[in-house]
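note to self: the first set is below, dont mix up w the second
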Amino acid sequence: MSWIMNPEGDGQGRSVRQRPPKLNNFPKQGPAGSAPGTPTKGLRTPGSASSVPGSPWAEFPMKDRYPRVPDPVIEEREVSTKAANRPFLAYSQYKQRKEAEHEAWLKRKQEREAKVRRGEPVGPEEPDPTEEPEVGCLGLLKFIFITFAIVVLAGKFFTGSYLWEQDLAGKIRALVPEGNQRLFSERMLSTFSGEIEGKPIYLAIDGDVFDVSNGRATYGPGGSYHFMAGRDAARAFATGCFATHQTHDIRGLSDKELASLAHWKKFFGESKKYRKVGRVLHEPIDPMSPIPEHCDPKKAKNAPENASKQAGHRDEL
């Protein structure tokens, strides 16, 4: 290591070291048997155009005028305090200081043990000051708490929400097994439209009730499909008449509309975002009451035919 700290040597008797100068003279040497000084074809001679060039560093001396200190590795040797050596010197001083502290602690420990053997009162045992401290459970809990606080505050700073705009309550509810599902009345279902703070958002489709709280931006107040929350709008899912068909009455629907209704029931039933929470109990529909008119005039003309087909199908069953 000493050569790393002091690559220029001990430096005794000189303060400036220079690289070797250019080699200006070569002995003229001919082939065997020729007289000294006789030029030979194919050999480079000094002064000729093909002579060997000198070192390019000859004119750049390595100056080291930094103070010198004892070498911590090799005794009776000094090294420079230049920037390249300072990390090694600082580490050597650190090791020497730690060794001195450890020796002092051992001495105090021996004195304490001697007092204990003599029966003299002593204070609590002093830990080794050079021993690396262990993290322990308290340190781990402190690290977890600080990390959690940083994440929460960062969420508030970047998104305005401590939970990074995540519906934590909805995700926790989704992890809870369904178990026995609830039976809702129409009046009870209407209280889950998202307008009451703290309550989830439910919608029903053909009697099945689904929790759509994870889609609050869509089904909550101000959302594009908020009118479906808190009610069974099965007919609107089938016909697309969202303004006039907010009812569970599915009489007179065509086969295509019934297939659309089945598609939406399957969508909510198999969705990973929403989950089924129960069923809604509807009051019986008066069969003599008029069927809701379709919002499309062309499809409204075919409604009586569809109703008669459904009636005939029920009679066959």
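second set (the one i keep forgetting abt)
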Amino acid sequence: MSRRRSLHALSAAAVAAAVLLGPAHVAAAAPPQELPSADQLKAALLTANDLGPQSGYTEVPATESPTPGETPTPVSGCDALSALLNAHAGQPGPSVPHAEVELDGQGGNPMVTESLTAEDNDRITADFAKAVDAFKTCHTLTLDAGTPDAVTFDVTPITLGDRQDAPAVRLDGTVGGVRLNAYVGIERFGTVGMAFGFFQRDDTSSQTASMQYRTAVAKVERTLGTTAGSTTPPTAAATAGMAV
């Protein structure tokens, strides 16, 4: 594997970890309360146009992404975070509304991943609390993407968006002399959980990550009729087949 593809795979592994930190990917029975559909969640995801026509981002089809597929991303160095990632690994079952997207800049740098999953209120409350706890207790994290390289990140809690209570961390590491930097943020919109990941090489500025995170939050709020941090179900869930 080339160095560039190896770095891209590690980038994808980091943002895949961000996706897995969203609500649990479980094949549960259909929840009793009405939730937004997968199509509604998809409409609320970021697109390349949302990040600006001159941004240079392109959407990566799931079949083309170098993100590890059938097996969970190996994670070590933080028991709470490792347990959370491993417990939530895999794809959600058909009864769990879910949508995700990966947007790559030129050469895969930077890379943005966003995941939206709808769950019943009790489950998402528990999942969100676990993510908050994992972010607070994790200081280092090692990712092995199945490439010749693995990378250990220093983990620092930060505020990525406008809400101080929304858990977010900054990851800093180096592989093969290349500096790697990521920002991971989790947000709740009633019965919908969002996991956002921004990964870049040879740059440590948080400005672009913060701006794009805010853009993602605003689009979810606008599209689903909800507010970040709310415990009230989105209004989109009240209308089946709602056009968004």
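remember for set 2: Confidence is low (pLDDT under 50) at residues 24-31, 65-72, 240-244.
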